[in-house]
Amino acid sequence: MTKHPLKDHSLTDHSLSNQPRPAVAVLGLGSMGQALAGAFLDAGHPTTIWNRSDGKGDGLVARGAVRAATPGQAARAAEVVVVCVVDYDAARAVLDQAADDLPGRLLVNLTSDTPERAREAAAWAEALGVDYLDGAVMVPAPMIGTPEALIFHSGTRSAYEKYEPTLKALGGRTAYVGEDHGLAAVHDLAVLDFFWMAMHGLVHGFALAATEGVRAAALAPYVKVLADLLADMVDGTAADLDSGKFPGDLDNLTVEAANVRHIVRAAEHRGLDAAALRGVLTAADRSIALGHGADNWTSIVEGIRDPA
Ligand SMILES: NC(=O)c1ccc[n+]([C@@H]2O[C@H](COP(=O)([O-])OP(=O)(O)OC[C@H]3O[C@@H](n4cnc5c(N)ncnc54)[C@H](OP(=O)(O)O)[C@@H]3O)[C@@H](O)[C@H]2O)c1
To answer: Would the CB of 140 count as within 6 Å of ligand 1?
Structure first.
């Protein structure tokens, strides 16, 4: 079988340690569940797998995973039980079947959903007396098991610390973000809020160029210059937000809002949907009306916080 190029940087080096790894179970074998189980196998964890419907996970069994007949049977075989299914309703449907078998084990829910649902799931686990971590996977399945893979966890700190090496088999950038079980989902939503807005801007910029016959590939090198600039601006923007100070000595919101207005006008003139950028402009104008016209771009946050 061909190895995925990302896997060439596998996190695991069994020559370093012969310590037995904790047994794990993975409930849910969609693309992400299969990747998680595969990374546990690569790291030497005895791995039990279960999926609602048949026909998934044969490759994992060929690599040494044991298939369980029920979620409860899978849980009984493991110290750490990972569930990763489509949403929290599905996770609850799976976990209800294993409820009697979960106490004494660490339950890690890597299904994505909202902070509210994460806290509900934590209350359910607490009522059962089960140590619970709520997690969010921030990278696509092929990156699981690599040093670059980012996964957030929140919940019982002692449980996270005990099983951190096990959880790091899934991603080198595994990060514990706090005791409140909703925090992994908060980080997930906030980081993806940034990501999807940026992805929208990326595609929108290409679409705008295309209206004048400029091919995406021709624009791409120049987009990368600004993408690098954006990465460099993350820490400064965070510092301004945390301090609540938006010094406008290098740039100011009035000039930048005028810039956005030009793009909205040009895009709409060419028949493109510019609703997202119009929303940006509305927030900027509101912030200017609140007195931030001479502050830097980050002061748009006041318009975001005051949508009325
Ligand atoms: N794929 C990615 O690259 C990626 C990246 C980041 C985060 N995630 C997150 O990972 C989670 C899983 O995603 P995925 O890509 O693995 O999804 P997927 O490939 O669509 O698989 C969905 C899984 O959920 C199971 N499922 C659905 N409804 C169920 C129910 N009512 N009861 C029991 N099992 C049920 C499916 O079982 P059946 O096989 O029986 O249908 C399958 O195992 C999601 O929360 C997703 O947001 C995925």
So the answer is: yes
How many angstroms separate the alpha carbon of residue 243 from the centre of ligand 1?
A: 40
Residues whose CB falls within 8 Å of the CB of residue 186, separated by 6 or more in sequence, listed in order: 115, 177
Mean pLDDT per block of 10 residues along the chain (308 residues) reads 36 55 98 98 98 96 98 98 97 97 98 96 97 97 98 96 98 98 98 97 98 98 98 97 95 97 98 98 97 98 91
Instruction: Indicate whether this model's pTM tops 0.70.
Output: yes
User: How high is the pLDDT of residue 62?
Assistant: 98
65 and 139 housed in the same domain: yes
Other residues' Cβ atoms within 10 Å of the Cβ of residue 257:
21
Which helix (H) or strand (E) segment holds residue 107: the answer is: strand 106-109
The residue whose CA is least distant from atom 32 of ligand 1 is 90
Range of the domain at 132: 5-186
pLDDT of res. 6: 33
User: What does the alpha-carbon distance between residue 25 and residue 46 come to, in Å, rounded to a whole number?
Assistant: 8
Q: Is residue 211 lining ligand 1, measured as CB closer than 6 Å?
A: no
- Same structural domain, 46 and 182: yes
Question: How many domains are there within the chain?
Answer: 2
Q: pLDDT per residue over 285-294, tens digit each?
A: 999 999 999 9
